[in-house]
Amino acid sequence: MGSSSVESLSEKQAVVKWVVGVMIVGVSVLGIYLSGPFGLWKKNNTSRRRNKRPIRVYMDGCFDMMHYGHCNALRQARALGDQLIVGVVSDDEIIANKGPPVTPLHERLIMVNAVKWVDEVIPEAPYAITEEFMKKLFDEYNIDYIIHGDDPCVLPDGTDAYAHAKKAGRYKQIKRTEGVSSTDIVGRMLLCVRERTITDTHNHSSLQRQFSNGRGQKFDDGVVASGTRVSHFLPTSRRIVQFSNGRSPGPDARIVYIDGAFDLFHAGHVEILRLARARGDFLLVGIHTDQTVSATRGLHRPIMSLHERSLSVLACRYVDEVIIGAPWEVSKDMITTFNISVVAHGTCAENTDFQKEQANPYAVPISLGIFQVLDSPLDITTTTIIRRIVSNHEAYQKRNEKKGESEKKYYESKTHVSGD
Protein backbone atom coordinates (compact mmCIF):
# COMPACT_ATOMS: atom_id res chain seq x y z
CA MET A 1 0.00 0.00 0.00
CA GLY A 2 1.38 3.43 -0.98
CA SER A 3 2.02 6.32 1.37
CA SER A 4 -0.82 8.34 -0.21
CA SER A 5 -3.30 5.55 0.59
CA VAL A 6 -2.13 5.37 4.21
CA GLU A 7 -2.51 9.12 4.53
CA SER A 8 -6.04 8.96 3.04
CA LEU A 9 -7.08 6.20 5.48
CA SER A 10 -5.68 8.15 8.41
CA GLU A 11 -7.64 11.22 7.34
CA LYS A 12 -10.89 9.20 7.16
CA GLN A 13 -10.28 7.69 10.60
CA ALA A 14 -9.64 11.16 11.96
CA VAL A 15 -12.93 12.43 10.49
CA VAL A 16 -14.85 9.49 11.98
CA LYS A 17 -13.28 10.09 15.41
CA TRP A 18 -14.16 13.77 15.15
CA VAL A 19 -17.81 13.06 14.26
CA VAL A 20 -18.14 10.52 17.11
CA GLY A 21 -16.58 12.98 19.51
CA VAL A 22 -19.00 15.73 18.46
CA MET A 23 -21.96 13.35 18.93
CA ILE A 24 -20.80 12.36 22.43
CA VAL A 25 -20.36 15.99 23.44
CA GLY A 26 -23.76 16.84 21.95
CA VAL A 27 -25.53 14.09 23.86
CA SER A 28 -23.81 15.16 27.08
CA VAL A 29 -24.80 18.79 26.58
CA LEU A 30 -28.38 17.77 25.78
CA GLY A 31 -28.53 15.69 28.97
CA ILE A 32 -27.29 18.60 31.04
CA TYR A 33 -29.80 20.89 29.30
CA LEU A 34 -32.75 18.61 29.93
CA SER A 35 -31.78 18.11 33.56
CA GLY A 36 -31.61 21.88 34.01
CA PRO A 37 -34.47 24.39 34.34
CA PHE A 38 -35.95 23.54 30.94
CA GLY A 39 -35.96 19.83 31.68
CA LEU A 40 -37.59 20.43 35.06
CA TRP A 41 -40.26 22.61 33.43
CA LYS A 42 -40.95 19.97 30.82
CA LYS A 43 -41.23 17.26 33.46
CA ASN A 44 -43.52 19.37 35.60
CA ASN A 45 -45.62 20.37 32.60
CA THR A 46 -46.07 16.73 31.59
CA SER A 47 -46.99 15.86 35.16
CA ARG A 48 -49.42 18.76 35.26
CA ARG A 49 -51.16 17.55 32.11
CA ARG A 50 -51.29 14.02 33.50
CA ASN A 51 -52.74 15.23 36.83
CA LYS A 52 -55.07 17.85 35.37
CA ARG A 53 -58.24 18.22 37.43
CA PRO A 54 -61.34 16.90 35.66
CA ILE A 55 -63.92 19.43 34.49
CA ARG A 56 -66.95 19.15 36.77
CA VAL A 57 -70.33 20.37 35.54
CA TYR A 58 -73.53 20.84 37.51
CA MET A 59 -77.13 20.47 36.42
CA ASP A 60 -80.15 20.70 38.67
CA GLY A 61 -83.81 19.88 38.28
CA CYS A 62 -86.95 18.57 39.90
CA PHE A 63 -86.79 15.35 37.84
CA ASP A 64 -90.43 14.74 38.69
CA MET A 65 -92.05 12.05 36.53
CA MET A 66 -88.54 11.44 35.18
CA HIS A 67 -88.48 10.63 31.47
CA TYR A 68 -86.07 10.25 28.56
CA GLY A 69 -86.02 14.03 28.06
CA HIS A 70 -84.45 14.44 31.49
CA CYS A 71 -82.01 11.65 30.68
CA ASN A 72 -81.02 13.24 27.39
CA ALA A 73 -80.40 16.56 29.15
CA LEU A 74 -78.09 14.79 31.61
CA ARG A 75 -76.34 13.05 28.71
CA GLN A 76 -75.71 16.39 27.00
CA ALA A 77 -74.55 17.99 30.24
CA ARG A 78 -72.11 15.14 30.89
CA ALA A 79 -70.62 15.68 27.42
CA LEU A 80 -69.62 19.23 28.44
CA GLY A 81 -67.32 17.98 31.17
CA ASP A 82 -65.60 14.98 32.72
CA GLN A 83 -67.89 14.56 35.73
CA LEU A 84 -71.57 15.39 36.12
CA ILE A 85 -72.95 16.43 39.50
CA VAL A 86 -76.74 16.65 39.67
CA GLY A 87 -78.80 18.65 42.14
CA VAL A 88 -82.25 17.24 42.90
CA VAL A 89 -84.66 19.92 44.10
CA SER A 90 -86.43 19.30 47.43
CA ASP A 91 -90.16 18.61 47.71
CA ASP A 92 -90.74 21.90 49.58
CA GLU A 93 -88.97 23.92 46.88
CA ILE A 94 -91.04 22.27 44.15
CA ILE A 95 -94.29 22.96 46.04
CA ALA A 96 -93.30 26.62 46.50
CA ASN A 97 -92.34 27.16 42.85
CA LYS A 98 -94.41 24.74 40.76
CA GLY A 99 -96.97 22.87 42.84
CA PRO A 100 -97.03 19.38 44.37
CA PRO A 101 -94.57 16.84 42.91
CA VAL A 102 -95.91 13.51 41.69
CA THR A 103 -92.90 11.56 42.97
CA PRO A 104 -91.36 12.28 46.39
CA LEU A 105 -87.69 13.13 46.84
CA HIS A 106 -86.47 9.64 47.80
CA GLU A 107 -87.94 8.18 44.59
CA ARG A 108 -86.51 10.98 42.48
CA LEU A 109 -83.08 10.38 44.01
CA ILE A 110 -83.27 6.70 43.04
CA MET A 111 -84.14 7.70 39.47
CA VAL A 112 -81.35 10.27 39.07
CA ASN A 113 -78.71 8.03 40.66
CA ALA A 114 -79.63 5.30 38.18
CA VAL A 115 -78.94 7.43 35.07
CA LYS A 116 -75.69 6.19 33.56
CA TRP A 117 -74.29 9.66 32.81
CA VAL A 118 -74.55 10.87 36.43
CA ASP A 119 -71.46 10.78 38.68
CA GLU A 120 -72.69 12.44 41.89
CA VAL A 121 -76.02 13.63 43.28
CA ILE A 122 -76.75 16.55 45.64
CA PRO A 123 -80.09 15.97 47.39
CA GLU A 124 -82.47 18.80 48.35
CA ALA A 125 -80.89 21.36 46.03
CA PRO A 126 -82.54 24.81 45.86
CA TYR A 127 -84.84 25.62 42.95
CA ALA A 128 -82.90 28.81 42.11
CA ILE A 129 -79.12 29.22 41.96
CA THR A 130 -78.54 31.84 44.66
CA GLU A 131 -75.17 33.55 45.10
CA GLU A 132 -74.64 31.61 48.33
CA PHE A 133 -75.40 28.23 46.76
CA MET A 134 -73.34 29.08 43.68
CA LYS A 135 -70.33 29.83 45.91
CA LYS A 136 -70.88 26.47 47.63
CA LEU A 137 -70.89 24.73 44.26
CA PHE A 138 -67.63 26.40 43.24
CA ASP A 139 -65.80 26.08 46.58
CA GLU A 140 -67.04 22.78 48.05
CA TYR A 141 -67.99 20.78 44.96
CA ASN A 142 -65.33 22.24 42.61
CA ILE A 143 -67.93 22.92 39.93
CA ASP A 144 -66.63 24.58 36.77
CA TYR A 145 -69.88 25.20 34.89
CA ILE A 146 -73.62 25.25 35.61
CA ILE A 147 -75.76 23.75 32.85
CA HIS A 148 -79.40 24.25 31.84
CA GLY A 149 -81.55 23.76 28.77
CA ASP A 150 -82.45 26.45 26.23
CA ASP A 151 -85.99 26.77 27.64
CA PRO A 152 -86.35 29.63 30.16
CA CYS A 153 -86.54 28.86 33.89
CA VAL A 154 -88.42 31.75 35.49
CA LEU A 155 -89.03 32.14 39.23
CA PRO A 156 -92.44 33.20 40.62
CA ASP A 157 -91.15 36.81 40.86
CA GLY A 158 -90.31 36.77 37.14
CA THR A 159 -86.51 36.61 37.49
CA ASP A 160 -84.17 34.13 35.80
CA ALA A 161 -83.28 31.20 38.08
CA TYR A 162 -79.77 31.10 36.54
CA ALA A 163 -79.04 34.85 36.45
CA HIS A 164 -76.14 34.64 38.95
CA ALA A 165 -74.45 31.79 37.06
CA LYS A 166 -74.74 33.72 33.79
CA LYS A 167 -73.33 36.87 35.39
CA ALA A 168 -70.38 34.89 36.75
CA GLY A 169 -69.61 33.57 33.25
CA ARG A 170 -69.93 29.99 34.46
CA TYR A 171 -73.16 29.07 32.63
CA LYS A 172 -73.53 26.75 29.64
CA GLN A 173 -76.65 25.90 27.71
CA ILE A 174 -77.82 22.65 26.12
CA LYS A 175 -80.60 21.90 23.69
CA ARG A 176 -83.97 20.95 25.10
CA THR A 177 -85.19 17.48 24.10
CA GLU A 178 -88.20 17.84 21.83
CA GLY A 179 -91.44 15.95 22.19
CA VAL A 180 -91.79 15.42 25.94
CA SER A 181 -92.01 17.12 29.31
CA SER A 182 -93.37 16.20 32.72
CA THR A 183 -96.26 18.54 31.95
CA ASP A 184 -97.05 16.54 28.82
CA ILE A 185 -97.00 13.24 30.69
CA VAL A 186 -99.22 14.46 33.53
CA GLY A 187 -101.49 15.92 30.86
CA ARG A 188 -101.81 12.52 29.19
CA MET A 189 -102.94 10.97 32.46
CA LEU A 190 -105.37 13.80 33.17
CA LEU A 191 -106.71 13.41 29.65
CA CYS A 192 -107.15 9.71 30.28
CA VAL A 193 -109.03 10.37 33.53
CA ARG A 194 -111.14 13.11 31.92
CA GLU A 195 -112.13 10.87 29.04
CA ARG A 196 -113.19 8.02 31.30
CA THR A 197 -115.10 10.13 33.83
CA ILE A 198 -117.08 12.42 31.49
CA THR A 199 -118.61 9.65 29.45
CA ASP A 200 -118.15 6.03 28.59
CA THR A 201 -119.81 6.35 25.21
CA HIS A 202 -116.75 7.78 23.47
CA ASN A 203 -114.58 5.61 21.30
CA HIS A 204 -111.84 4.19 23.53
CA SER A 205 -109.26 4.65 20.77
CA SER A 206 -109.76 8.42 20.90
CA LEU A 207 -106.97 8.92 23.43
CA GLN A 208 -104.30 7.52 21.16
CA ARG A 209 -105.82 9.40 18.23
CA GLN A 210 -105.51 12.68 20.13
CA PHE A 211 -101.87 11.95 20.90
CA SER A 212 -101.07 11.34 17.26
CA ASN A 213 -102.93 14.51 16.25
CA GLY A 214 -101.24 16.54 18.98
CA ARG A 215 -104.36 18.05 20.53
CA GLY A 216 -106.77 17.56 23.39
CA GLN A 217 -110.25 16.15 22.88
CA LYS A 218 -113.34 18.37 23.05
CA PHE A 219 -116.38 16.93 24.74
CA ASP A 220 -120.03 17.90 24.40
CA ASP A 221 -119.71 20.43 27.25
CA GLY A 222 -117.15 22.31 25.19
CA VAL A 223 -114.33 21.69 27.65
CA VAL A 224 -110.98 20.60 26.35
CA ALA A 225 -109.78 17.59 28.31
CA SER A 226 -106.27 18.92 28.68
CA GLY A 227 -104.63 22.20 27.80
CA THR A 228 -101.20 20.65 27.71
CA ARG A 229 -99.15 20.07 24.61
CA VAL A 230 -99.33 16.36 23.81
CA SER A 231 -96.21 14.43 22.83
CA HIS A 232 -94.74 14.99 19.38
CA PHE A 233 -91.86 12.60 19.96
CA LEU A 234 -90.17 11.59 16.73
CA PRO A 235 -87.92 8.57 17.28
CA THR A 236 -84.63 8.57 15.39
CA SER A 237 -81.93 5.93 15.09
CA ARG A 238 -79.32 8.49 16.21
CA ARG A 239 -81.08 9.03 19.54
CA ILE A 240 -81.23 5.29 20.17
CA VAL A 241 -77.49 5.00 19.39
CA GLN A 242 -76.75 7.90 21.78
CA PHE A 243 -78.56 6.07 24.59
CA SER A 244 -77.13 2.63 23.81
CA ASN A 245 -74.08 1.16 25.52
CA GLY A 246 -72.74 -0.30 22.29
CA ARG A 247 -71.43 -3.41 24.00
CA SER A 248 -72.32 -7.06 23.67
CA PRO A 249 -72.02 -9.92 26.18
CA GLY A 250 -68.86 -12.00 26.30
CA PRO A 251 -68.87 -15.66 25.18
CA ASP A 252 -69.23 -16.94 28.77
CA ALA A 253 -71.48 -14.15 30.07
CA ARG A 254 -74.44 -15.03 32.25
CA ILE A 255 -77.30 -13.22 30.50
CA VAL A 256 -80.36 -12.22 32.53
CA TYR A 257 -83.63 -11.37 30.79
CA ILE A 258 -86.52 -9.39 32.25
CA ASP A 259 -89.48 -7.98 30.34
CA GLY A 260 -92.42 -5.64 30.86
CA ALA A 261 -94.17 -2.49 29.73
CA PHE A 262 -91.94 -0.13 31.77
CA ASP A 263 -94.57 2.56 31.30
CA LEU A 264 -93.97 5.84 33.19
CA PHE A 265 -90.51 4.55 34.12
CA HIS A 266 -90.27 4.90 37.91
CA ALA A 267 -88.20 4.00 40.98
CA GLY A 268 -89.85 0.59 41.26
CA HIS A 269 -88.62 -0.27 37.76
CA VAL A 270 -85.10 0.93 38.59
CA GLU A 271 -84.84 -1.18 41.73
CA ILE A 272 -86.03 -4.43 40.11
CA LEU A 273 -83.60 -3.85 37.20
CA ARG A 274 -80.80 -3.37 39.74
CA LEU A 275 -81.63 -6.72 41.35
CA ALA A 276 -81.95 -8.46 37.98
CA ARG A 277 -78.56 -7.15 36.84
CA ALA A 278 -76.97 -8.53 40.02
CA ARG A 279 -78.06 -12.05 38.97
CA GLY A 280 -75.69 -12.14 36.01
CA ASP A 281 -73.12 -10.36 33.85
CA PHE A 282 -75.41 -8.83 31.22
CA LEU A 283 -78.98 -7.54 31.55
CA LEU A 284 -81.26 -7.81 28.52
CA VAL A 285 -84.62 -6.03 28.90
CA GLY A 286 -87.66 -6.77 26.76
CA ILE A 287 -90.02 -3.81 26.13
CA HIS A 288 -93.51 -4.90 25.12
CA THR A 289 -95.28 -3.25 22.17
CA ASP A 290 -98.02 -0.65 22.61
CA GLN A 291 -100.55 -3.19 21.30
CA THR A 292 -99.46 -5.82 23.83
CA VAL A 293 -99.66 -3.34 26.70
CA SER A 294 -103.13 -2.19 25.63
CA ALA A 295 -104.32 -5.79 25.40
CA THR A 296 -103.05 -6.70 28.86
CA ARG A 297 -103.36 -3.43 30.82
CA GLY A 298 -106.36 -1.68 29.26
CA LEU A 299 -107.24 0.50 26.31
CA HIS A 300 -105.90 3.70 27.89
CA ARG A 301 -102.43 2.24 28.28
CA PRO A 302 -99.59 2.69 27.68
CA ILE A 303 -99.19 6.35 28.61
CA MET A 304 -95.77 6.42 26.94
CA SER A 305 -95.10 5.00 23.48
CA LEU A 306 -92.80 2.06 22.77
CA HIS A 307 -89.81 4.17 21.73
CA GLU A 308 -90.25 6.57 24.65
CA ARG A 309 -90.30 3.64 27.06
CA SER A 310 -87.28 2.07 25.38
CA LEU A 311 -85.16 5.22 25.77
CA SER A 312 -86.02 5.51 29.47
CA VAL A 313 -84.90 1.93 30.06
CA LEU A 314 -81.74 2.35 27.96
CA ALA A 315 -80.68 5.33 30.08
CA CYS A 316 -80.62 3.14 33.20
CA ARG A 317 -77.08 2.19 34.27
CA TYR A 318 -78.13 -1.39 35.15
CA VAL A 319 -79.34 -2.15 31.61
CA ASP A 320 -77.00 -3.46 28.92
CA GLU A 321 -79.40 -3.97 26.00
CA VAL A 322 -83.12 -3.82 25.18
CA ILE A 323 -85.41 -5.63 22.78
CA ILE A 324 -87.70 -2.96 21.33
CA GLY A 325 -91.06 -4.67 20.91
CA ALA A 326 -90.37 -7.91 22.78
CA PRO A 327 -92.84 -10.79 22.39
CA TRP A 328 -95.29 -11.48 25.22
CA GLU A 329 -94.23 -15.12 25.53
CA VAL A 330 -90.61 -16.08 26.21
CA SER A 331 -90.01 -18.90 23.72
CA LYS A 332 -87.33 -21.60 23.53
CA ASP A 333 -86.05 -20.04 20.30
CA MET A 334 -85.70 -16.65 21.99
CA ILE A 335 -83.79 -18.16 24.91
CA THR A 336 -81.43 -19.92 22.50
CA THR A 337 -80.99 -16.89 20.22
CA PHE A 338 -79.95 -14.57 23.05
CA ASN A 339 -78.21 -17.28 25.11
CA ILE A 340 -80.37 -16.40 28.14
CA SER A 341 -79.35 -18.01 31.45
CA VAL A 342 -81.99 -16.47 33.74
CA VAL A 343 -85.50 -15.11 33.09
CA ALA A 344 -86.49 -12.81 35.97
CA HIS A 345 -89.76 -11.31 37.17
CA GLY A 346 -90.54 -9.06 40.13
CA THR A 347 -93.07 -9.73 42.87
CA CYS A 348 -94.54 -6.24 42.47
CA ALA A 349 -96.10 -6.05 39.01
CA GLU A 350 -99.33 -5.10 37.26
CA ASN A 351 -100.02 -8.77 36.61
CA THR A 352 -98.92 -11.23 39.30
CA ASP A 353 -101.34 -14.02 38.32
CA PHE A 354 -99.57 -14.94 35.08
CA GLN A 355 -98.76 -18.45 36.29
CA LYS A 356 -102.48 -19.15 36.75
CA GLU A 357 -103.28 -18.17 33.17
CA GLN A 358 -103.76 -20.78 30.48
CA ALA A 359 -101.18 -19.08 28.27
CA ASN A 360 -98.45 -18.46 30.83
CA PRO A 361 -95.82 -16.27 29.07
CA TYR A 362 -93.07 -17.82 31.21
CA ALA A 363 -94.06 -21.47 30.76
CA VAL A 364 -90.92 -22.33 28.79
CA PRO A 365 -88.32 -20.77 31.14
CA ILE A 366 -90.19 -22.35 34.08
CA SER A 367 -89.97 -25.77 32.43
CA LEU A 368 -86.26 -25.23 31.80
CA GLY A 369 -85.64 -24.28 35.43
CA ILE A 370 -84.23 -20.83 34.60
CA PHE A 371 -87.16 -18.70 35.84
CA GLN A 372 -86.55 -16.63 38.99
CA VAL A 373 -88.97 -14.42 40.95
CA LEU A 374 -87.26 -11.44 42.58
CA ASP A 375 -88.60 -9.66 45.66
CA SER A 376 -89.35 -6.12 44.51
CA PRO A 377 -87.72 -3.57 46.87
CA LEU A 378 -90.46 -0.97 46.25
CA ASP A 379 -94.21 -1.43 46.11
CA ILE A 380 -94.69 0.88 43.13
CA THR A 381 -96.31 0.21 39.75
CA THR A 382 -97.40 2.42 36.86
CA THR A 383 -100.92 2.27 38.29
CA THR A 384 -99.51 3.70 41.55
CA ILE A 385 -98.26 6.77 39.66
CA ILE A 386 -101.57 7.21 37.84
CA ARG A 387 -103.48 6.98 41.13
CA ARG A 388 -101.33 9.75 42.58
CA ILE A 389 -102.41 12.00 39.75
CA VAL A 390 -106.06 11.02 40.07
CA SER A 391 -106.15 11.52 43.85
CA ASN A 392 -104.82 15.08 43.50
CA HIS A 393 -106.50 15.82 40.19
CA GLU A 394 -107.37 19.48 40.80
CA ALA A 395 -103.90 20.45 42.06
CA TYR A 396 -102.18 18.87 39.05
CA GLN A 397 -104.71 20.38 36.66
CA LYS A 398 -103.91 23.87 38.01
CA ARG A 399 -100.18 23.14 37.91
CA ASN A 400 -100.43 22.00 34.30
CA GLU A 401 -102.50 25.00 33.23
CA LYS A 402 -99.86 27.31 34.69
CA LYS A 403 -96.99 25.37 33.16
CA GLY A 404 -98.92 25.03 29.90
CA GLU A 405 -98.79 28.79 29.36
CA SER A 406 -94.98 28.90 29.58
CA GLU A 407 -94.76 25.80 27.36
CA LYS A 408 -96.97 27.51 24.77
CA LYS A 409 -94.80 30.65 24.78
CA TYR A 410 -91.66 28.53 24.40
CA TYR A 411 -92.95 26.71 21.33
CA GLU A 412 -94.39 29.85 19.74
CA SER A 413 -91.05 31.69 19.96
CA LYS A 414 -88.92 28.59 19.40
CA THR A 415 -85.99 28.79 16.97
CA HIS A 416 -83.56 26.10 15.84
CA VAL A 417 -80.77 25.35 18.31
CA SER A 418 -77.83 23.28 17.12
CA GLY A 419 -76.81 20.32 19.22
CA ASP A 420 -78.12 16.88 20.08
TrEMBL record:
Q: Which InterPro entries match?
A: CCT, Cyt_trans-like, Ect1/PCYT2, Rossmann-like_a/b/a_fold
Residue span of region Disordered:
398-420
Q: Which UniProt keywords apply?
A: Lipid biosynthesis, Lipid metabolism, Membrane, Nucleotidyltransferase, Phospholipid biosynthesis, Phospholipid metabolism, Transferase, Transmembrane, Transmembrane helix
Tell me which NCBIfam families the record gives: cyt_tran_rel
Query: Which reactions is this enzyme annotated as catalysing?
Result: phosphoethanolamine + CTP + H(+) = CDP-ethanolamine + diphosphate
**SUPFAM superfamilies in alphabetical order:** Nucleotidylyl transferase
Listed EC numbers: 2.7.7.14
Q: Which GO terms describe its biological process?
A: phosphatidylethanolamine biosynthetic process
Q: Name any one Pfam family assigned in the record.
A: CTP_transf_like
Q: What class of enzyme is it?
A: transferase
Residue ranges constituting the Cytidyltransferase-like domain according to the UniProt record? 58-187, 257-387
UniProt-recorded Gene Ontology molecular function terms: ethanolamine-phosphate cytidylyltransferase activity
**What protein am I looking at?**
Ethanolamine-phosphate cytidylyltransferase
Q: Where are the transmembrane segments?
A: 20-41
From which organism does this entry originate?
Pisum sativum (Garden pea)
Q: Which GO terms describe its cellular component?
A: cytoplasm
Q: In which pathway does it act?
A: Phospholipid metabolism; phosphatidylethanolamine biosynthesis; phosphatidylethanolamine from ethanolamine: step 2/3; Lipid metabolism
Q: Which domain of life does the protein's organism represent?
A: Eukaryota
**What family classification does the UniProt entry report for this protein?**
Belongs to the cytidylyltransferase family.
